[in-house]
Amino acid sequence: MRLRRAPLMSLLLALGVSSADARVRLGEVLPAHPWQSAAREVVVVYSHDCGDLGPLWQAVLDSGLPVRAVNAEGVTSPAPGGLSAWQGEAATRFSRDLKVSAYPTVLLVQEGRILNAWEGDFSGALE
To answer: Global pTM?
Structure first.
């Protein structure tokens, strides 16, 4: 029998083991956005040139938390089925106000404040 971690714990472990140098500041309030905030949620900020984000999207979706997709930098790139990506100038401004240094960026947000941040390439397995 194979033991599996709880999905949220797996996501937190993956986000916490980043080699990227995040400039997003923990504890800051999210900039203005078009969605109604949840008590705890995951925000994925990405662009068209991130490559294959399939494993990252799966890990985020498996967290069990509401997921917000932000497609920045003006070139449309779809989010996985069931997610509607926020796009356009306002989405890019959101990314820049956060001081995102690399796409994709994944934020764990609690009550509107950034609890954890991860930026860069995702190549880890969440098993």
So the answer is: 0.80
